[in-house]
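Record minuted for completeness.

…
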Amino acid sequence: MKTSSIKSKTKLLIEIIIVLGIMSGIKAILDQFQIIGSGSIGIWIGILIATFFFNKRNIKWSDIGLRLPKGRKQWLTQIGIGFLAIGSILLITFITLYVLEPFFGLEKTADATNKFSFFLGKPVVLILYIVIGIWFGAGLGEELMMRGFVLNHLKKLIGDSKISWLWP
């Protein structure tokens, strides 16, 4: 293996370690202060750092597949899917809290309910948390981080073949 190839692969591995390390470190620090959404905050800081590394390599997020919908029909479809997802989450939450919990005699732990007590009686706050904290923060953030950054870096480390996409 050529020395330049080894150096290039070493840089890729170091970038992955830096991004994931900072992301995990931020989450751990924010968890100590019991900040809700610490995982999402850590992910988005990791994405900022990943963007820095992409810029150093002259790579844009669109180069790896991140593109906005084109045309009105695609936008409406994507927004509809988003609302469908939110509705599904609310339905599952309702079924869990009001159907399954009493049916199985489950009890809420004090820690779990205290952490999210700011939702009680505030459906708008709950919906905003689902959209901003869960969908945008965790869902989109994780996809960008893992599929966009980490898997593309691993593909370059292992090689661009079908087997390299199955490996992780």
